[in-house]
Design a protein that fits this description.
By secondary structure, this protein is an alpha/beta fold. It is built from eleven helices and 16 strands. Bound molecules: S-adenosylmethionine.
């Protein structure tokens, strides 16, 4: 990642190829021939370790480009595999945690992404005869690491941080350690087949993590970009982003989605506002308190921290150079019909929202990049 300066990235959200999951054998073997040899020799532990050494070299680069106090989120699943009649677990998540600990990162509580399947053939082993049946893996991990101490904000950065807030009810869901609701998440950027073929995660996954662990205008990196889901989520969230992808064939898929991200993101914003409105109605019906008012939308919120929260709709997303995309945002927040804005806080219509610090190179809006390895 030589194009990326040291200590320039605020957040990494990524999902690497999963060691010892067969769909990634070739990708790993192409990068290191000894991996293919270990697999051909049926040496599972050796192949596992060599695959992780490939990932380690990327994690070391990630460490170089990250700013102090930044966060890394790694979505990873463990693997089970039978080699020479020996069924075994290959614990990818613990191997990655070990590496980040050695690099000096602080380990934060993990999120389990529950991927329940009802398929009757999901169970493996000796069926109803003990003791040779195997537990099915029905979750993946989102590992979270911090580089150094807690991030501090200067006084001049605080307004941007306040505007980057999320709703109280979102916090209660997002910061739970088990995510069970991703499967039913309505808005999918890519269809299911495309996502399965490329190992993409659902849009909502990086979208949440970006809101949880960065502020507007930050730079988000995905060193294993795949279909670019992290970059699209960053566009939606008014963050800059950089993605690296080794498979050139995915370039077209990524480019084909740039045209759709404006409507897709704005619909997502509308849905978030709508869900908050429903939450408010339920809370009022339950006679529970709603003590504060959001200054931009005029609707009630639970905490003082949500008073400045605001969404900016996307105006356009276009390719400005090879693999470089630029997004422009409206200053006018989106309102639902029932919101009653306070006139004093209404911003002039049509004014372009300038990105908050750090400012992007262009005055027009946030720059979104996809670079190739
Ligand atoms: C699990 S997929 C990532 C999917 C992505 N999160 C998405 O939503 O589309 C892992 C990706 O890493 C890519 N990859 C593997 N090794 C790489 C490397 N050394 N550098 C960059 N990309 C790599 C693979 O081609 C694959 O597209």
């Amino acid at each position: 990642m030589s194009e990326v300066s040291s200590k320039s990235v605020d957040l990494v959200v990524t999902s690497p190829p999963y060691p010892m999951i067969e769909m990634w054998d070739e990708v790993f073997s192409l990068q290191d021939k000894t991996i293919g040899k270990a697999l051909n020799a049926n040496d599972g532990p050796a192949a596992f370790e060599l695959m992780h050494r490939q990932l380690d070299s990327v994690w070391a680069e990630v460490d170089r480009v990250l700013k102090p106090s930044s966060i890394v989120c790694v979505n990873i699943g463990d693997a089970t595999r039978t080699i020479r009649d020996n069924f075994a677990l290959y614990s990818n998540h613990s191997r990655i945690i070990s590496f980040f600990l050695k690099q000096g990162f602080t380990v934060m509580p993990v999120i389990l992404w529950r991927k329940q399947t009802n398929a009757p053939n999901k169970f493996m082993g000796s069926g109803m005869y003990p003791p040779g049946a195997y537990v099915t893996l029905e979750h993946e991990y989102i590992l979270i690491f911090r580089k150094g101490g807690k991030r501090e904000f200067k006084a001049s950065e605080k307004p941007n941080r306040r505007e980057s807030a999320y709703f109280w009810e979102e916090r209660n869901n997002w910061f739970s350690d088990v995510w069970m609701d991703l499967k039913g998440a309505t808005q999918k950027l890519f269809d299911k087949n495309t996502r399965n073929r490329s190992g993409a995660f659902p849009f909502i996954l990086p979208f949440r993590l970006i809101h949880m662990f960065s502020v507007r205008g930050d730079t988000v990196l995905d060193p294993f970009a795949g279909l670019g889901t992290t970059t699209f989520a960053a566009m939606s969230a008014q963050r800059n982003s950089i993605g690296y992808e080794i498979d050139e064939n995915l370039r077209e898929s990524i480019q084909s989605k740039v045209d759709t991200i404006v409507d897709f993101s704005n619909e997502h914003i509308r849905a978030r506002l709508e869900r908050h409105r429903e939450f408010v109605e339920e809370r009022i019906a339950a006679e529970k308190p709603l003590k504060h008012t959001n200054l931009h939308y005029g609707f009630p919120v639970i905490t003082k921290q949500e008073k400045d929260l605001v969404f900016h709709p996307l105006l356009s997303a276009e390719q400005v150079r090879d693999d470089t995309f630029e997004v422009r945002y409206g200053a006018e927040e989106q309102r639902t019909e029932t919101d009653t804005p306070e006139p004093a806080t209404k911003k002039p219509a049509g004014k372009k929202k300038k990105p908050s610090p750090p400012k992007p190179d262009s005055e027009k809006g946030h720059k979104q990049m996809t670079l190739l390895d």
